[in-house]
Design goal:
Layout lengths: L1 H4 L6 H12 L4 H8 L5 H31 L23 H15 L3 E2 L5 E3 H4 L19 E2 L2 E6 L4 H8 L6 E10 L11 E11 L4 H16 L5 E8 L2 E10 L16 E10 L1 H6 L8 E8 H9 L12 H4 L7
Parallel strand pairs: 1-5
Antiparallel strand pairs: 2-4, 3-4, 5-6, 6-10, 7-8, 8-9, 9-10
Helix pairs in contact: 2-4, 5-10
Bound molecules: 3,4-dihydroxyphenylalanine (DAH).
Length: 331
Amino acid sequence: MTEVQALQASTPEEVEALRIKYLSKRGELASLMNDFRSVPAELKREVGQRLNELKAVATERINELKAAAAVGNDDNADIDLTRTPYPVKLGTRHPLTIVKNEIVDIFSRMGFTLADGPEVEDDWHVYSSMNFPDDHPARDMQDTFFVEAHPDIILRSHTSSVQARVMEHTQPPIRVICPGRVYRNEAVSARAHCFFHQVEGLYVDRNVSFRDLKQVLLLFAQEMFGADTQIRLRPSYFPFTEPSAEMDVSCTICGGKGCAMCKGSGWLEILGCGMVDPAVLEANGIDSTQYTGYAFGMGIERIANLKYQVRDLRLFSENDVRFLEQFTAAN
Ligand code: DAH
């Protein structure tokens, strides 16, 4: 009896082994019950009672062990499983990720799909296929990071390289948005960094016009900065677009009246854009007599600065949680 009360087991498997050993059909208790038949009549009452007691004690002990094993072990039996867990501090999304997601979301709703390309690129995709002449200053070592052993391999200095990556294996209609990191050989300061982030857009199809570009960019600006936002396009120059423009939005702080943010002009520059130069379409295997397209490119840090008034670019890459914690995203 006391032997049975002292049975020990800590895992559910060990408890089950004990149950089989003592309580199963071929277990020790069952065989004692079998022997009961040969007990002399005058002892049957006494032995029967003892056997029943033994069975009750064994069942109780095994059930006890089973319950303890389910919790872990006896030492943990006093843990209060109904207590609420410790407050777990969730991380927050990086402000640049929040802004990137928002940009991608707006263009996705207009039918653009995501495209991607490598950060370590070759000269062809970053410059030659984008119509940069051999002596263009952007190819200069002052702007571009070269991989020393391979003068042809560079860190991409803009996401326009993804345009070439997409066009070389896709025929129109093409409607893509390409977010990513880019690198330039700049001294790091509050206003410049040696890496930053851009979003490139490319639309190529039959009969695509500057009017389409303007409408899509107006919709984007109003979704990003509010329904009252106005845009203005100023003529500009990029090797890969003709004509080219820079786009301003009405100041997100003063709404256009003039303030310190917009330096009194009422406008803030946010992106470059234009009609894809036919030479770029041809260089990438697209028939420029059949197709036209537009492209645009914007800096994510620039948009984040306008939304959150972050004055020092370096904050975006320092990983200081006191800065990062201030941003929250719905998704
Ligand atoms: N690649 C340009 C830059 O890094 C931005 C840009 C301007 C992209 C005009 C475009 C564009 O696609 O059409 O400054």
